[in-house]
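User: I'm curious whether this sequence folds into something compact or stays loose and floppy. Could you predict its structure so I can see for myself?
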Amino acid sequence: MLHRRTALLTATAVVVGVGAATATAAVQAAPHAAREVGVHPGLQGIPSGAPPAAYQAEPRLPVPHGWPFGEQFPRTSGTGRLAGGATFWSDFLYDDHGARGAIVDTPIATLAPSDGTYVYANPKARNNGADIFRAAVGLDRHASYWRVDWNTLVDPRVPIAEWALDTDTDTRTGAATWPAGAGVRSPGIDRALVVSANGARLVDAADGKTLARLHTTVDRNARTFLVRVPRSVLPVSGIWQVRLAAGVADDSDTAFAAVATQDGALPGQPAVYNVTFRSYLQEPPVYKPSGDQGELEGNGLARGVRYGNFWMEDHQADALTSGDVSAFALPVTWSRLAAGDTTPEPLPSGYTNRWYVSSLHLGQGVVHDSGSGSGDLRPNFLGRVQPYAVYVPTSYDPRTRTPLTWILHSLSVMHNQYGALDPSMIQQECEDRHSICATTLGYGPDGWYFDEAERDFWAVWHALATTYSLDPERTVISGYSMGGFASYKLGLEYPDLFAKAMPLAGPPGCGLRVLEGVGGGGGPGRCTEAGDTTPMVVNARWLPYVMADGVADELVPVTSVLQQIQTFDRLGYRYHFELYPAEDHLVYATQDGFSHAIAQLGTTTRVRNPGHVTYRWYPVLRDPKLGIGPTGAYWVRGLRGRVSTGSALASVDATSYELANPRVMQVNTQRNVDVPGDPTPALVTDNTWKVGADQPRRPVLTVRASNVAALGLDMRRARITSGRLVVTTDGPTRLTLLHLPPETLIRGSGHATRVAEQGQVTLTLGKGRTTISLR
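Assistant: Here's the prediction. I'll summarize afterward.
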């Protein structure tokens, strides 16, 4: 495990420069040098060597003023728990789409539409104004507490919430219709608590009379509405069935505003955008409508058809379309709250959505793309809490480290793409392989895994590593289309973190590319500057790839894919390639037939300390503010480009002859998949290695560097603690040697210095060849 020593040697050494120039090696004393080249020791489940964003602690959400209980909300959406006098519930994020009505808006994720059709007329809603994030009910000796946390709360006058209370669990008493114009029903309502920014009303559901007026504590920082109800006003006992819904407040701020047809509702449909207390079992990734609404051809669906629940709101839309929300309720046993009972954090197996707290401050709400049909490559879902999908196999045991498989989403889709469209893929890639799987949202459908979208990837990995017992040696990165591009982009940028990579219909470049240099980027900025992954294929020396593509692909031209395969061939690297003559792009994605490719993933472990490291990168991708960007590979660390703008590339080729360097022979075979194939017949090419004898070991390490301003070498991992180091560089380079034994003597040109106890020294090398002896 690498340490992060910062004290450096203060002496100066002169080292021989052989070739174009001599090089003066100055031993640096700046404390920041160690931070630049050191590798974070990592979390269990994340290998050391990931960028800083992977290890950054998650921020804490503000605690709302006036809430006297804890913050033990579950991280799995659609689950609840008890803790310390309160019951806590987490709802689904960005699920505020109301009933299935009039389609008036183009969804941001165009290939992942919501089932509900409501949109917001008020711009202060920021397209997310009635989205319940969390809810909680607490009890002390004097009062009950009713809390709603909003995903977005730009203007507290926008949302309204209503708690419907069945206080005797008898559907024959009370009323069915919710007060305050919500437009929904659930039999057995005895009381209702209508909550807006201007106050709360306790209502007798049977006659609609206001029993008490109460104060709403609005905490804009916590984005919370909180109502404290004295027990003398609302006595509590026994078991209650509690329901909660939200919408937009009317002009009086005391009732729900009706949703107009131009905002997505049909005449007479409810004024509710979001109903909570829907469990993850009620909102599965593939949802079957009840059929109560008759034929659904208006939305392109027929009665009983199973379809993708992209935003985990299909059952909600189904219920709101009928007006009956009785299926969604939270049982509250007041004696358990009074006793302070605590139940564990729910960690269900199977497919769920979870959330984490983002450290980015992007604003609130949801913004539409400003670009063309392929988006603008900028964040759309701006909230400080972000969702992601996770699949936990039924075999998961927290006492055993479990491999992680990334299944990254396509352009114009989102984190529930594979749960919604490819249940067989989920079964094969996750359950059958005994692997936890995860899909990120990336703050939107079109980030191409650059900038904030990449930051989201590392934040989700951090969240997974602090929740589950992950095996850092067996992480696989995969995805379809844009997610396939990410399997190239992230896999090649951080090759030592993964055991295998699987791009499915993945473009080698960011955008539509016919051949390298022919075609257009998906958008400006990083996509254009650093969107070509072909130059980075050299980094796959120790990372095997599995690739599957269609000949008729209209969005990923097969010519670009074959060029990528030719690059693997030219380098002699290992890969498995399936070429489907009959498959296109969009239909191929929905056929859910990837078993042949998935079978190649196996349980491979990552390579940790190879003898030969080849690494090429785009220095422009380094972003210290986001904590992302190339960090190096294997025992080559702390890389910095000399020219770090535009599409400039930098590269390092390093060999430690004290590590295994076996001779390998490339073995290329082709065969046809048995008919019918999966999903159709394919031509399969395998490029494998026949490993020969190891080359003789000797204490020599060689480096060739191009456009490299700084690099570090972990001498312990390279197994060079004494011997000779030969570095050839095309310009000034700061070289840091890490983990040398204390008192190591560095010698050159008759001058020598000893490494201090910290085992680290930084040398400044000039252009040309430099030879350093270590003993």
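Summary: The two ends are 23 Å apart (CA to CA). The chain has twelve helices and 44 strands.
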